[in-house]
Amino acid sequence: MNYWLIKSEPDEFSWDDLVKDGKSIWTGVRNYRARNNLKEMKVGDLAFYYHSNVGKEIVGVAKVTKEFYQDPTEKIDRKLGVGQWVVVDFSPVKKLNKPVTLEEIKMNPKFSNMELVKLSRLSVSSVSKGEWDAILKLSDTSL
Q: Quick one: pLDDT at residue 75?
């Protein structure tokens, strides 16, 4: 199993929206590295759900329910007949008992190499098993 972090602006699509809908297609990723991370995801992989811009905190855990496929929001190049952007489907697993803020993460040396810190603008990033476990511990959450 691999671990990830996905970002969403809470005023666009919050954790509560994901819970209410029960699932979501992760559209609109327009960064090659983030796209490649989506392509690496497998059904059952887990992802931290991070509220960006407003809140700047990890608030929940989601799981991959469908592996990558063509992003339906992309305009397809008619000559090529295919697009270059993909999506993945997620469903909620569990809300964290205590959100973990970006400030907490940045202050903790355990996370100095975390992509959330090093590549702060990346909307879909990988999370190591050690980072995953440490964040769950900080949040007083078990899965």
A: 83
